[in-house]
């Protein structure tokens, strides 16, 4: 054990002589001062001068741009903050196709969670609105509804098949019901694993 302690002491002594600036001053005073001034900021490539430009990933086309077009989420073109029309009241309901084998025996592996839902229904209250005034546009993840009095831009919680939906306007209640089939390509695999 003493031999290990002695070798450790010798190693520490050798290290201290390597790092000592007194011996370095005798050999090369310029090198000793340079080594003494090295800090964490000296790690990595040298800082760029003012003449060098920032990498092309951070260059923006217009100096007033806050973000690039790739960073803007889908359907944000419908978000018009200057539009004074209020948002109508709406209710989003997730739906499942449930049969007796699901209800009594639980054979299909479905549960009451939203993961097992196949469709969604959005009920939108539009008082004092006619069916001919409603303009509805459904994208995969966004529903845009415009009327002369109301505006609704709704980001959907799940992707949907935009061409397979149905909309029905009930004039007596002034309610628009939009039924959308969810687009879930992995459901056949996920539901079999249960």
UniProtKB/TrEMBL annotation:
InterPro entries: DNAAF6, PIH1D1/2/3_CS-like. GO terms for molecular function: dynein intermediate chain binding; protein-folding chaperone binding. One of its GO terms (biological process) is flagellated sperm motility. It comes from the Eukaryota. GO terms for cellular component: cytoplasm. Residues 87-181 form the PIH1D1/2/3 CS-like domain. Residues 17-56 are annotated as: Disordered. Pfam families: PIH1_CS (PF18201). Belongs to the PIH1 family. This is Protein PIH1D3. It comes from Merluccius polli (Benguela hake).
């Amino acid at each position: 054990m003493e031999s290990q302690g002695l070798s450790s002491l010798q190693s520490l002594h050798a290290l201290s002589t390597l790092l000592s600036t007194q011996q370095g001053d005798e050999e090369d005073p310029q090198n000793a001062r340079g080594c003494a001034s090295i800090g964490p900021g000296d790690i990595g490539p040298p800082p760029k001068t003012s003449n060098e430009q920032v990498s092309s990933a951070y260059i923006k086309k217009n100096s007033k741009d806050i973000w690039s077009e790739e960073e803007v989420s889908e359907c944000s073109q419908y978000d018009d903050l200057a539009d004074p029309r209020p948002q109508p009241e709406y209710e989003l309901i997730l739906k499942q196709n449930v049969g007796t084998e699901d209800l009594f025996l639980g054979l299909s592996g479905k549960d009451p969670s939203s993961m097992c839902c196949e469709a969604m229904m959005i009920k939108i209250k539009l008082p004092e609105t006619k069916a001919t005034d409603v303009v509805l546009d459904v994208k995969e993840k966004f529903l845009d509804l415009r009327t002369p009095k109301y505006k609704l831009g709704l980001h959907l919680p799940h992707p949907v098949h935009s061409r397979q939906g149905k909309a029905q306007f009930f004039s007596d209640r002034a309610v628009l019901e939009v039924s959308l089939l969810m687009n879930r390509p992995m459901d056949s695999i996920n539901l079999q694993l249960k």
